[in-house]
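2024-03-11 09:14:02 INFO receiving multi-entity request
2024-03-11 09:14:02 INFO entity count = two
2024-03-11 09:14:03 INFO echoing inputs for audit
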Amino acid sequence: MKIVVSLLTGLMFGLGLIVAGMVNPAKVLGFLDITGAWDPSLVFVMVGGIGVAAAGFHFAKKQRHALLGGAMDFPSARGIDQRLVVGSLMFGVGWGIAGFCPGPAVVSVGAGSMQAMIFTAAMLLGMVIFAALNGFYRRSS
Amino acid sequence: MTIDWQHFSPYEALAGGLLIGLASVMLIVLLGKIAGISSIVGGLLQPNMAGQRAWRVAFILGLLLAPSLYRLFSPYPTVQIEAGTPALVVAGLLVGIGTRYGSGCTSGHGICGISRLSLRSIVATSCFILAGFVTVYVLRHLIVA
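2024-03-11 09:21:47 INFO inference complete, emitting structure
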């Protein structure tokens, strides 16, 4: 049951990204190009997404368990640290170069885009590098 | 700054955003999980994730199948990718390392985090949007122009 719900949720999330136009890197770059011809569409994606999710999370925070069982896995990290800021800045630079963020990249792989596959392969490599370095730092500290 | 009215699509953007928000709510309420794509994908590449793999694989399968389902009802939108292969590789590496180092991306921090009023996520989202603005400015208006 949980697996089916997860699959359907991924499907709905992916459809949302397609409908919103986020799977088109040129559109994303149009949003990031504030000093040129700016396309504010992505502001509306955020407004729609956060509008629904804020109500949902307000409800979710009051729940002790997930409705299908198991813990509520809310992130436990709190502070603003160097990792958060530097990592987010790195992500932003990569996002600005190609116009892909992780969700749309994976959906575009499903659409058969060769360029999305190259991007996603590099992204996975980056995540493996992170996991390796993170493991190394944890052992040495 | 001028507004690109030709490509501005507020209704599609809002509709897509509502679907993304709804999916995020389903995942947290039903399964107790945050819909952060970089964490869902990255978690599969971490060791010691026993019992946390199946739902991630199913969610990613859903993302991969979304274009096929969409095509049953409507032609897939036009996609324009300007970056060449070297740029895609550099961008992919930066996105892969950056999202893991910064604990999230546009979905986890931008949608789920801001919705929870997480200060960390508000800071992270501001950082990556700002870095995106600066990067596009440099690439489009300083280097090319």
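2024-03-11 09:21:48 INFO post-check: Chain B touches chain A through 113 residues (CB under 8 Å).
2024-03-11 09:21:48 INFO post-check: Residues 10-143 of chain B form one domain.
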